[in-house]
Model the fold of this input.
Amino acid sequence: MAADTKSAGARSAGAKAARAKVSRRDWIEAAYQELARAGERGVGINALAARLGVTKGSFYWHFKDRPELMAALLDRWAHERTDEMLALALGSTGDPRERLRRIQALGRDVAPVDRAMRLWAQHDAAAAEAVRHADRALLGHITACLDGLGFPPADARLRARLMLRAWIGGYLVQPDPAPDPDPGLTADQSLDIFLSTAAPPDRPGR
Done:
């Protein structure tokens, strides 16, 4: 009887140690990685527990249920998208064009999770609001860069929207599996087009 009591106590102590080792933040980060890999519907408690090497009991130590985890995941994404990564990318330069180039490159870096978020937002109001919040912040950064380059306010706002839509569309559109003989525009070339103040040349026959 005493041995059984000690064994149960050891198991309880082990479970508490596992819960202490894997934090709430760890669960959110694991969910973030799973979101990028498999989309919102792929974020499951069992899959996350396996990824973290713990039991489901650890999850319920930190969260009431999956909706609470998904709400925390939305906060995590919005914070990273609008604060952490932008600050990291933009903080070391004040040059507006270089800042735009870095925002463009950042979009490619976060494309998998950004794509998953936008697909999630199509059927979930909270996800849709998180995407709108992040996009408003990003548009503010792009518009400020264009202001710094001397574009009039209305022009800067319009170009900012077009740039954001083009960049997002670039990684939402599925790539063609067939080899493309035309590699298309480079990132710098596409940025040159968005920043051009010249009118497009007349087409033949116009």
About this structure: The first helix runs from residue 2 to 21.
